[in-house]
Amino acid sequence: MKPPLPGFARFLAVTALMLAQAHAANKIVFLAGGKSHGPGEHEFRAGCMLLAKELNESGLDVQAEVYSGWPSDEKVLDGAKALVIYADGTSVVGKGWDKVDQMAKSGVGLMFMHYAVHPDKAEADKYYRPWIGGAFETDFSVNPHWVADLKPLPNHPVSRGVGSLVEAYDEFYYSIRFMADRSKVLDLATAVPDRERIKRYINLWTPYGVQELGKPQALMWGIERPGGGRGVGFTGGHYHRNWSIDGFRTLVLNAIVWTAGVEVPKDGVKSKPLTEDELNANLDDKGKADRLTVVKPGEFKKIPTAPIDTKREAAFPQDGPRKFENAGKSPTVRKGGVVKPVAESPNMNAKSARLHEIKAKIEDAKELYLVVSDNGDMGFDWSDWIEPKIYFKDGTSKDLGDLQWTSATTGYGEAKVGKNINGDALTVDKKTYDKGIGTHASSVIVYQLPPNVRGFTAKVGVDDGGMFQGGKTQGSDVKFSVYTEKPPAAGDQGDTMVPEEMFTTPDNNLEVTVWATTPMLKNPTNIDFDAEGRMYVAEGVNYRHAAGTRPEGDRIVILSDTDGNGQADTSEVFTQDKNLESPLGVAVLENKVIVSQPPDLIVYTDVNGDRKFDPAVDKREVLLTGFNARQHDHSLHSVTAGPDGQWNFNNGNTGGIFTDKSGKTFRMGSGYYKDGGGTWYQDTKAIAGKPSDDGNVWVGGFSVRMNPDGTNARIVGHNYRNSYEQALTSFGDMFQSDNDDPPACRVAEVMEGGNAGFSSADGQRSWGADRRPGQDVPTAEWRQEDPGTMPSGDVYGGGSPTGVAFYESGALGDKWQGLLLACEAGKNVVFGYLPVPEGAGFKLQRIDFLTSNKEKEFAGSDFLGGKANGELKTLFRPSDVAVGPDGALYVADWFDQRVGGHGTMDKSGSGTIYRIAPKGFKPVVPKFDLNTTEGQIAALKSPAVNVRNSGFVRLKAQGDKAVPALVELLNDKNPYIAARAVWLLAQVGPSGEKVVADLLSSDNARTRLVACRAVRAAGGDVVKLAEKMAADPSPMVRREIALSLRPVAADKALPFLVTIGEKFDGKDRAYLEAFGLGCSNKEAAVYDALRSKVTASPEMWTDAFAWLAWRLHAPQAVADQKARALSKKVSPDQVKLTLTALGFTNSAAAATAMIELANTAGFEQKDLANWWVNNRKGNLWKAFDVDGILKAMGQDPTNVKLTAVEMPAEPANAPKLPPAAEIAKLQGDPAKGKTAVAACYMCHHIGDTGVEYGPDLTSFGKQQPTEVIVNAIANPSADVSHGYDGSEIKTKDGITIMGMVLSEGDPIIVKCLGGQTQTIAKSRIASVKKMEKSLMYTPAMLGLTPQSIADIAAYLKSL
Hints:
Layout: H1 7-22, E1 26-32, H2 44-56, E2 62-68, E3 80-86, H3 97-105, E4 109-113, H4 121-132, E5 134-135, E6 145-152, E7 166-170, E8 177-178, E9 186-191, E10 198-200, H5 207-211, E11 217-224, E12 230-234, H6 246-259, H7 276-279, H8 310-314, E13 322-323, E14 343-344, E15 348-349, E16 356-361, E17 367-373, E18 382-392, E19 397-399, E20 407-409, E21 416-417, E22 426-428, E23 431-433, E24 436-440, E25 443-448, E26 453-462, H9 464-467, E27 468-469, E28 472-473, E29 477-483, E30 510-517, E31 524-529, E32 535-539, E33 554-560, E34 570-577, E35 585-589, E36 592-597, E37 600-605, E38 619-625, E39 640-641, E40 647-651, E41 656-659, E42 665-669, E43 698-699, E44 701-706, E45 714-720, E46 726-728, E47 734-738, E48 745-749, E49 754-755, H10 777-781, E50 794-797, E51 801-807, E52 819-824, E53 829-833, E54 836-838, E55 841-843, E56 847-851, E57 878-883, E58 889-893, E59 912-918, H11 933-940, H12 945-958, H13 963-969, H14 975-985, H15 990-999, H16 1005-1017, H17 1022-1029, H18 1035-1044, H19 1050-1062, H20 1069-1078, H21 1083-1091, ...
Parallel strand pairs: 1-2, 1-3, 3-4, 4-12, 42-43, 45-49
Antiparallel strand pairs: 5-8, 6-7, 6-9, 6-10, 9-11, 11-12, 13-34, 14-29, 15-29, 16-26, 17-25, 17-29, 18-19, 18-24, 18-26, 20-25, 21-24, 22-23, 27-28, 30-59, 31-32, 32-33, 33-34, 35-36, 36-37, 37-38, 39-40, 40-44, 41-42, 44-45, 46-47, 47-48, 48-50, 51-52, 52-53, 53-56, 54-55, 57-58, 58-59, 60-61, ...
Pfam families: DUF7133, NPCBM, ThuA
InterPro entries: 6-blade_b-propeller_TolB-like, ARM-like, ARM-type_fold, Class_I_gatase-like, Cyt_c-like_dom, Cyt_c-like_dom_sf, DUF7133, Galactose-bd-like_sf
Keywords: Heme, Iron, Metal-binding, Signal
């Protein structure tokens, strides 16, 4: 033990210790992020160690320490004067927010470098801006790789010894989001980006990147915090080589020292030039990597400038109109069709084979393009070209890796020879490869080829490093393609529009021209015009799989033809909003732009008329809300102004619960719920069958008519599947198309209040659950043998119907006056109809008015399984059609290989507007002054439906003053224009009403009809109207009166309904349904009144009265209906009609009668009666204890014998089939195929033979390419047709039944193999689950060989 020091000596020792502590080195702590990116990039650990070494050897009173990641012992941070974090995002600081915040508040300096300046927005607001003054912000900041001339802040310590400018090539982020008081942030180093300096655009390129070009950007910034301490952010540091640039390194060292509060020497922090060994020290192990070299002066200037992605930038928000030439068409657009790959892989993902071999003939090619597409999502798309070789005519070959590519673009990182994108070994399915090219989709690698080449081979696949990360399989999904000429754009697969010359029309006097195309617009979903001829386009760039493609949100753009040359030349953005996600409707009514974006119907009011929504000036109102479903095709569609001045819109069968501005709530439910994806806002399944506040039960898809302010809404049609849009004529007729469960798409008139029939009247059951024996699909799907459904119109089969329009006047001339246009995207056509009144309805004769595919060789459509063939003629996907104020027709084309089922393939967002007009047509948009009566009449006469509304509104406001002009308009030779006057006359006051009253006596039936409708729209007395018009000679007029009586009480409506009923001819289905709708809630009274006039016995009823009784299906008719069913004098068809009437009668007597008929010996239709018993006992007759009645008769439904139906096991040792493409190459024999196809009859209808269980194969065979047919047979589970999903039901007593569930009620109804339908009481069921496989048997189960599959395909093609 040492003796104690004397007093003075002890004092000296303590003083020395205190002095030593006072002069201890200033501690600087570096926290380095983990391994990231490829070799030489994001070398966080090596960079930190290099900078720390320089500081420790600088002679300054500092001590630098380096730690990897967030320290496990936070005590190492104690006493630090500065903390430097160099890492990926918040991967390090995110583990110590509170500690770092504590350090900042205690005055410790903080510096974040490169990616570490990128937190999320909330973290930036809470921490980064208070700590260091700014941060990278997604959707605002950008991260291109560019050559910067860094200019340090003059006279600031960080500039000492650096020099005036420092040139460096790095991923310098710019457009940084700084703190609110920008004056407190020091621009420590700035540079000016421009197009020439940018060598690579990265995924986070935004409009702000464009806006900030040419402006000084702070790439290093700093603050002095009010409470003490400094903060610095620096965006450089991506490339490790830059530390070898003396000025670059000194600038950062100065900043670190300044952050620590240490005086920076006048010549800067001392740092000698780095050697190559020092540069390569401490690098992360990222596989085999080239040695880094010291940067040489001037080398960055040799890096080629990056090409500008004009398509992407065209979609950016813009401050004003953007001018275009040639309708936006690129001068390099190919005329010869699609540039096709010489070889390509299938889609490569976790579900596909891991490797695919590519072989391509490239004889005498000059260039080679290796393209990898990201299939809509670039996440984890590490893509490998394994052992790529080119072959020469002399028999020699060469590894492609030995050639130098001329250019290489990737979606992430940089392409590498002999390594994957991350710099590790090329590895696919756990096997490594020495030779190859690693890249990341989307990618294009271009080679100039040596002479005399003849072939190319490679194996391709997704690298394991991308496919498997974080202990799980990722969603990697790519496609490899080989081209010998330049693809249209990096990653695109073909043209971006269908050339004009590919279209045909039925009129040789018309021509099709491109009015506008991408980049003027993208992915058009809907269009409308304003009075000046400007087109408003709703865009759907962020549709489904492409969600997030446009982070700023989708847009409403305005296209204009400012010089009148017949092509749009200006594009401007009315609004862009993150809330807009593929809106399916846009309408323009003067300065109001109505956008249909679930859950809202949004009205933008352009107050100052500058065609750009500004929330500070303009108004945005959610007029109505509660509509399902966002990002779903079966949702909210566009608004059309009717001839009565009211607004109309519709919604598909996603339904909704909405309340109008009068306070009435409408409950639009059905069993279709959370199907098909999207965001659902209302539980519409729970309210299916519940009445709305108007007392009616509405289900499924629906149409709404309301005042422009959202008041007094009413449902004018319902139970659609997905009507995309409505077309209203000036006579007041409404037409629409409707989507189907294949194959029953249709175009039809909508009867006011009518039920289209897609689901049951209570919304609980699909049409398949109620499909009667012997009914074909179109009849069953639209319930055309059910009372209470509208006529289905023109049912044309499978498809994807979209927008509709009605042409009444314009450039096409009188020949096409009254033309109904209906877009059919699935069949590459716009249908045309000239509806002809027929009784109380219309005859619809269909023509192809505009098509790119006159051969009708369809592909890529949902009703055909979605398989695309890439043929340009199949890529025309019309989404909407409109009549412009110049009188021409305009068609919006979505342009895609795929359509239907929410499927798309086009990643370019391409879209085109075509104009159909007479050859040589010179557009003239009429000018009118809406402040004058003459101008208002001119507006009312516009060919564009929503433009007319501006004239309507102002003429109505004039009141009686407008009557003379409107009376004069009645004489217009165009009956549609004359009709517009009738609607207004009924609404402008007493003198106008008198004119309309006189028109009720017109000799012209159509005029009388319009007058009736106008009186109703004006709120006239419908009872008085019925007194005058119920016996009108026109069935269309009587139909209108019947519909008007629906809300009228029986005591007032009865005499008129009886009159209308008595005039039924026994044939007119539209008339009968209108009569039935008028009798709603008073059927019994009307039936009694009509029955009292029939003296004949039930078996002698006329067909007309039998149909009336069927439509009314009153409970008191049960005895008569049963008597008719049992009579031998009644025809089989009338007996079936009688059974249907009983099946729709809600009474115990009806249920009992049907049970008795089902058990009557000798009754020829007892099977049908039994079907009705089983169908109705779980719904309409549930309250009548049908099972109890059956038990009393000795028939216990819970003991019904069930038949087990299971999919057989795959035969043992079944030979593996070759790929479908190989089978398709076999020569098929149609004659042999006719025999082999017998194996398909147990499930499919082919021609007149077979069972309707699976899809009908007759049209399928005609319309599909051979390879698609072969693949459907060889791989039945690869793509199950919509509506044919299988379920497995297990009963409590061990029976397994597999089939299609038609009804999920009690009992469950399931359709099994061979068309057998079984009814299963829920009390017997143990479980129900969806099958993962198709119900279709595999080839091995059917005993089919590759040759017999080819034969069947040949036979189906021959039908």
